[in-house]
Each structure stands twice: as structure tokens, then as C-alpha cells.
Write a structure and sequence with these properties.
The structure is a single chain. This protein is an all-alpha fold. It has a domain of 100 residues. It has 4 helices and no strands. α1 runs antiparallel to α2 and α1 crosses α3. The model has no long low-confidence stretch (mean pLDDT 81).
Length: 151
């Protein structure tokens, strides 16, 4: 059964948006892994590819009760081209600004989260055995002085 015209237009609109989503997700992974090693980039892109394939299968089968229009790849490509020519520059600028903001907020957010999860007293209790172990190892491996002849 072919859906009515309004449903077809809605499906086409969703496919354009999904093409934009696919391209932006790939740009985000490239941005996040830009300073990582080659292996990490390959793993990140492979994980993204597998995740996007799973999302695409769910999206296409839930779009209109499993109805996939025959121009499905054309509309996805159209959404990708819209992203590349109109939205990519702003997306990358936004990601750069988020990276700068994260650089400023990383330490305060980490301190707040650590303080909320482990107050200072809890850290003192948790670290006590390690401090004693460190002191014991320092006494065990200390250098002997030749002048005194003693430890």
C-alpha cells in the first residue's frame, strides 16, 4: 500500500533530516578522535559505523511501518549534501567552542563530581591504607648512609 501524499512528504523530510544526522555524527566522531592515535580513530569510526547501521535499520523500519521509498538513498544523500554545503562550517565552529568551554570547565566539574561522590573524609579513610603502605615501602627501600654506618 502506498501512503498518501502528506505521509510521503513527511517521510521525505525525515530522510533529509536523517541524512544530515548521519553526516554530523561522522563529523563529531572525527572531531573527538582528531588528536587520538590511528588505532583509536579506526576503532571509533568502526563503532560509529556499526551503531549507525543499527540506528538506520530501526529508523527505516519504524518510519512508516517498514515502508522504504525507492528513492531512500537519494534523499539521504540530499540531506548529506545539505549538511556539507550549508551546515558543516557552523557545526565545526560549535564543536571548537564546546572544546574550549570543556577545557575551562573540566577541572571544576571533576572537583564537584568527586566531592559529591566522595567527600574529603571518605577519601581520607579510603587512602589511609595506601599512605601506610607507602611509608612502609619507603622505610624498606631507603638508602643506607656510609658516614653513620646506621640505617
Amino acid at each position: 500500500m502506498i501512503p498518501p501524499l502528506t505521509a510521503e512528504i513527511k517521510i521525505i523530510f525525515y530522510l533529509f533530516l536523517y541524512g544530515i544526522f548521519l553526516m554530523s555524527a561522522y563529523d563529531i566522531v572525527l572531531f573527538v578522535t582528531r588528536k587520538a592515535g590511528k588505532f583509536i580513530r579506526i576503532v571509533g569510526q568502526s563503532a560509529l559505523f556499526i551503531l549507525l547501521v543499527l540506528i538506520t535499520v530501526r529508523f527505516t523500519y519504524s518510519l512508516h511501518h517498514g515502508y522504504i521509498p525507492w528513492l531512500f538513498p537519494v534523499f539521504l544523500l540530499g540531506g548529506g549534501l545539505i549538511y556539507l554545503y550549508l551546515l558543516k562550517k557552523q557545526m565545526l565552529q560549535g564543536l571548537e567552542q564546546l572544546a574550549v568551554l570543556w577545557g575551562y570547565l573540566k577541572k571544576p566539574v571533576k572537583n564537584i563530581v568527586v566531592y559529591m561522590l566522595f567527600p574529603k573524609e571518605a577519601w581520607r579513610i579510603l587512602c589511609y591504607p595506601f599512605r601506610k603502605m607507602k611509608e612502609t615501602l619507603r622505610l624498606f627501600f631507603r638508602k643506607k648512609t656510609l658516614k653513620d654506618g646506621s640505617d
